[in-house]
């Protein structure tokens, strides 16, 4: 990877439309090609249902595998939370289509239930049974997903192993049904889809870790911060640093090699103008954050990234910014503020941060340091005030926003980060105040 700065803001409506058309093509082209090759008189109605459901199910599996493959432009276009939500939705669609395909085959295939007799059936049928059983196990494990707890990594390992079995067996099933790939175009399509999946897997599990190994960092300090958090500071180890845009995030890996399986996504809290020194503030949740707190200076860590389009990059003509965060959602906002301060940006800014109590407000000293360097108004909001509290009380809502924003708030850009309910609620309040949707940028924590 070169060390030039790569802009994340090349991803507006046109980019999202382009991605949508690509995925629509992946879903439908094999179906259209098949019906071009197989004329309607050649296929009975029941067979047509089985064939169509199977082909679209296979295509949906390909899309499902491609979505979480950490493609930077895709994540920047839609946001990681949207990418993963669509991934889960299309996975459910694929499961339904596979079941429709299986039922139609059992009803309309002359061999009936005997097609499931693995000892005497065809290799295509064996591959289909293997893929279907693995897919059912994926669904069962997904329903029992433990969350980011000690056994999460084991669950993730099994999940990815089963997904690999599903995809390989599904591809072999299609390939061994020779009449589906007897046409040159169809054969080229399915070979291409297999190469695409293999390439995405090689990139995700080989190339990205190898790149992370080239850009290792050294732990400089680890310190507890108010709000039940841990701040980790790392320094580039023999390189100028991994370029990123203010507001982006990386997957952090701790281990003797970048090929370790356990990794967690964290927003960068430091200035994008100094990629050689990165800072993260992480909420104390689970065993991984306990591991972070136990890190000692000199330990090597590895980063996969940067990712995301939640960034001020490309908004040089904006009149000003409003940053709204709750809890640890302050971290990407602090990165943006520090970057603006380092660049001597004198545009007006507003920072609205909320927590349950004053002691739960995170990174207050760091915010004060930034406020001294730029034209920034800070509004602190607590839901449970203590005696003597003179700031805002309650939640960030329409009335609070109306009191603290300037006369023409529609000229500003708004960056919201925090728990999903807060981000959704405040977004609605901003729209009610006349803020255009295109000026509201969001990132929801807890989606990955």
From TrEMBL:
Cofactor: FAD
Localisation: Membrane
Record PANTHER family: NADH OXIDOREDUCTASE HCR (PTHR47354), PROTEIN RFBI (PTHR47354:SF5)
InterPro entries assigned to the protein according to its UniProt record, in alphabetical order: FAD-bd_8, FAD-bd_FR_type, Fe3_Rdtase_TM_dom, FNR_nucleotide-bd, MRET, OxRdtase_FAD/NAD-bd, Riboflavin_synthase-like_b-brl
Organism: Kribbella koreensis
Topology within the bilayer: Multi-pass membrane protein
Protein name as it appears in the record: FAD-binding FR-type domain-containing protein
Main location: membrane
Domain of life: Bacteria
Residue spans crossing the bilayer: 20-38, 44-68, 89-108, 123-143, 155-178, 184-203, 318-337
Segments forming domain FAD-binding FR-type: 212-313
Keywords assigned: Membrane, Transmembrane, Transmembrane helix
């Amino acid at each position: 990877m070169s060390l030039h700065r790569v802009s994340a803001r090349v991803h507006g409506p046109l980019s999202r439309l382009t991605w949508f058309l690509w995925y629509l093509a992946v879903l439908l082209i094999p179906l259209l090609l098949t019906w071009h090759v197989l004329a309607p008189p050649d296929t009975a109605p029941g067979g047509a249902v089985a064939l169509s459901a199977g082909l679209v199910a296979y295509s949906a599996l390909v899309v499902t595998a491609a979505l979480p493959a950490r493609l930077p432009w895709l994540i920047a276009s839609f946001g990681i939370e949207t990418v993963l939500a669509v991934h889960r939705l299309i996975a459910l669609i694929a499961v339904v289509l596979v079941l429709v395909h299986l039922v139609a085959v059992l009803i309309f295939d002359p061999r009936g239930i005997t097609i499931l007799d693995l000892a005497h059936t065809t290799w295509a049928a064996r591959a289909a049974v293997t893929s279907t059983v693995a897919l059912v196990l994926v669904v069962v494990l997904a329903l029992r997903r433990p969350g980011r707890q000690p056994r999460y990594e084991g669950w993730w390992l099994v999940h990815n192993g089963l997904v690999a079995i599903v995809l390989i067996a599904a591809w072999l099933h299609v390939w061994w049904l020779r009449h589906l790939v007897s046409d040159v175009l169809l054969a080229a399509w399915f070979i291409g889809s297999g190469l695409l999946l293999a390439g995405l897997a090689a990139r995700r599990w080989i190339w990205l870790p190898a790149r992370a190994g080239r850009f290792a960092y050294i732990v400089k300090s680890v310190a507890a911060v108010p709000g039940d958090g841990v701040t980790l500071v790392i320094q580039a180890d023999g390189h100028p640093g991994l370029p990123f845009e203010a507001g982006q995030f990386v997957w952090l890996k701790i281990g003797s090699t970048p090929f370790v399986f356990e990794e967690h996504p964290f927003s960068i809290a430091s200035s994008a103008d100094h990629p050689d020194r990165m800072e993260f503030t992480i909420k104390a949740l689970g065993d991984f954050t306990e591991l972070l707190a136990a890190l000692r200076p000199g330990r090597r860590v590895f980063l996969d990234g940067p990712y995301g389009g939640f960034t001020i990059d490309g908004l040089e003509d904006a009149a000003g910014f409003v940053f709204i965060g709750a809890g640890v959602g302050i971290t990407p906002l602090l990165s943006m503020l520090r970057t603006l301060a380092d660049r001597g940006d004198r545009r007006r800014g507003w920072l609205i941060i909320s927590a349950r109590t004053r002691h739960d407000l995170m990174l207050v000293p760091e915010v004060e340091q930034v406020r001294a360097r730029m034209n920034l108004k800070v509004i602190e909001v607590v839901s449970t005030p203590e005696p003597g509290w003179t700031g805002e009380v309650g939640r960030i809502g329409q009335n609070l926003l109306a009191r603290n924003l300037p006369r023409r708030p529609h000229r500003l850009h708004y960056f919201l980060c925090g728990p999903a309910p807060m981000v959704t609620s405040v977004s609605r309040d901003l729209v009610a105040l006349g803020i255009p949707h295109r000026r509201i940028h969001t990132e929801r924590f807890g989606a990955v």
